[in-house]
Design brief:
Protein name: Reverse transcriptase domain-containing protein
Organism: Chara braunii
Number of domains: 4
Strand content: 5-15%
Distance between the termini: 25 Å
Amino acid sequence: MEAFSIRRLIKDAFRRFAGEEAAQWLDGIVFGWTYDKSVAAHVCRPKQLFKDFDIEQWTKQYDPTQCRCRTNRYLSLHSQHTLELFPGSEQTHVLTMDTSIINNGWLQAMLKAGLNHVPLRAYDIGEALYEVDLLLDKLVIVSYDIASKSESRRRKLKQLVLQKAEAKMVGHCSKNRHISAEPIDRTSTRREIDFLTDHFLICPTDKSASTPPFVCVEFIRVLALRKLQGSDFVPLNEDPDPLIDSIRGELTHLPALHVGNGALPHLMTVYKAHKRTFRWITNTANTVVSPMASLCASLLSFLIPCVQGTCEEKSIEMEAEYGVKPNLWWPIASVGQFATNLPQLLFSVYTADITRCFETIPTDDSEHSLVMAVRFFVQLALEYRRDRSSRDVIRVRVSADGYFPSWVEERLQNTGNELFFNEEEIVAVTQWCLTHNLVQMGTCVWKQVLGIPMGLACSPVWCDIYFFRYEYQAMIRFLRTGNERLVPAFDDTYRYVDDLCSLNNPSTREFFKEDCDQITNPIWIYPKSYIEMKETTEVKDGEVGISTNFLNMTIAVSSREQGTYSTSKHDKKKGMSFPPCRFMRFNSNRSIAQSLQVITAQTALILLLCTDPREAAKEINEIVSVMFENGSETQRCWAIVKKLLEGSFDYHPGQVDRHLVECHLRTDFNMD
């Protein structure tokens, strides 16, 4: 953590130098931070493991009976679950969350702090003062009030700030001499990191991204190769470099896209400890396909308001014709959006997970393909737009800060900072991305032919669009086949990517029956050939479940006759088989403000999700307790909570009485 607030120090120095008028000099100026690499940047090396190796030599030499993890040192860390992950195998391998696998005390302590931990650096007052000096020079450039002063006054002002900063630094060093730098760059630590990453994959854990598992390199490569040799991928008989050049050549008509030298995507993985399996992700960051994927996400996201407008118009039209207003737009963007739309009375809850949705969506040109869904989505958006304006061409301004789409009347020539897209060209961007679903492992390249890669910037938007098509068409189909009575049951139905929740709809599961003949029976939502539903509702009394978790919220119906219910925060880290790393450690080399923002964000979320003041107080106390265990001062944490409670209406829609929450915190948990 930083020794003091540099902004406050500069502001106080300005006020002392120029009076109260200087208090406004920093208004509108944001002080940014440049952080050192986190531990994850040092130890998580999926590119080295899955891409930068000789796959042919490895394939010839690999012998599971001679695996490097079979030494006596690691035998106790072998897991029987590796046999389940690779059926037919007779050899177990290392798969553990135990940091005792590390043979360096310093590195072990850093990994226990979490993959998001930024190692502490040695105190260097000279280097820190140099950084402050550079900051003051930048302030002269961005602040007219400072730049308008004479050079001699600016020099005196800088001298005053540097003197105060040095005094603060010296005082901090004398009080905190017990804090030592973490030797992440020491030779012994680097040697241990190289040895560890040569033998084991270290990756994030699902639901606890900062907690590292350790997996045998040879074993995880076997799993990766088996995935690529499955039916979802086909090998390409092309070398990576010519393929990259070819892709770069295909994008010359879009000069604003900065492809650079590029590279092909490679695999990475996340360990799902609660299911003892792995989630495979295609890492497309800084690759030859990432600019087009980001462009695709920008274009499709830009069309969402138009499609939402279409849904509202169509709902009104259907209501006039059939006397029932259908809910045609189910996607939500956050748990907050879900919480603010909860009904006053709740009689039933149904939640389900759309299993393997990324892997099963067809990417060909068939009727149920993603391309057809995107085409349907784009047509709805453009029809809505053309009914209101002659501007039906999207212009995308490209800059270092991202992609900025807007509507224009005419499609002009693409330039170095502007791109133009009509209806067909928007769809063509998706088609291009699907055509280039490539993965490199070693010097070999595979193309994904079924499903969409989890890792593309546009993948979440694609999922929403794919499922939206069937949700929209199902509601219209119910009305047009004389099943109007079914439509109101979906008024409170929501979907977040692949998580579905339907409220006050006791017959929801009837729409997802596997034995439904979807050719003759109109009562279905998603095509069963590609989409599989797994209900996650807790069923009681042999009827519809009255308790379930949806996103970060737990919903419990207390009376199905009266419709009373309660909501609370669902912590996915609770009940795990290992101690998860939670939040940021105080001794991580980050700003105190950033660390304490965890309390602000978590408390605001609790106030949003909880209806019981006692439950909300209990959850907030747990957050403060974890922050204390991580090294933060309890009083500082409670001060943030109290400040938040004073203005809590800015953070939640009023589901819980903040005064009662504060009372419980004071009486039950000694908040002073």
